[in-house]
């Protein structure tokens, strides 16, 4: 069941549209560029939906909270015993807290893809030991 859910979430992440910044209208270079909205796949956009119940954001969106937890769950499954060697009994809520803490400690990287930062967080928290020679 876990494998099916993990594959489903990875599939959803893979088909989420990447919003390319292509424009057919010529830019007006006489004005400074307007501040752009964060990418829908960046940590800037997704991380606020990953906070726990103790830190309820005013814009509570349960679908996006599920999206966040689904990404983390799928990463945990995909990286299990290859890049992430978490002990038995680790649950997705614990993985979520690790990811939130890791990304929050690196505000200069919030513009990067959430999924890459989340993978780094899990690998940093539970690295696998290299096999003995």
Task: Give a written overview of the molecule.
The chain is an all-alpha fold. It has one domain. The protein is built from 5 helices and no strands. The longest helix has 18 residues. It is globular. About 13% of the residues have low confidence.
Instruction: Tally the structural domains.
Output: 1
Based on the structure, what is the oligomeric state of the protein chains? single chain
Averaged pLDDT, please? Answer: 77
Strand content: under 5%
**Estimated radius of gyration:** 17 Å
Q: Class by helix and strand content? A: mainly alpha
Span between N and C termini? 35 Å
Number of helices: 5
Defining traits:
single chain, 133 residues, mainly alpha, globular
Secondary structure layout:
Layout (H helix, E strand, L loop, with lengths): L1 H14 L27 H4 L15 H18 L12 H13 L9 H12 L8
Brief rundown of the structure:
This protein is mostly helical.
């Amino acid at each position: 069941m876990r494998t099916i859910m993990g594959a489903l979430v990875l599939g959803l992440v893979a088909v989420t549209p990447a919003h390319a910044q292509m424009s057919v209208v010529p830019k007006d270079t006489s004005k400074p560029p307007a501040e752009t909205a964060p990418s829908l796949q960046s940590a800037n956009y997704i991380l606020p939906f990953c906070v726990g119940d103790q830190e309820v954001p005013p814009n509570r969106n349960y679908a996006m909270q599920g999206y966040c937890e689904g990404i983390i769950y799928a990463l945990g499954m995909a990286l299990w015993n290859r890049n992430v060697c978490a002990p038995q009994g680790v649950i997705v809520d614990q993985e979520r807290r690790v990811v939130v803490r890791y990304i929050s400690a690196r505000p200069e990287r919030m513009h990067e893809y959430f999924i890459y930062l989340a993978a780094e967080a899990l690998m940093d928290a539970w690295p696998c030991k290299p096999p003995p020679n």
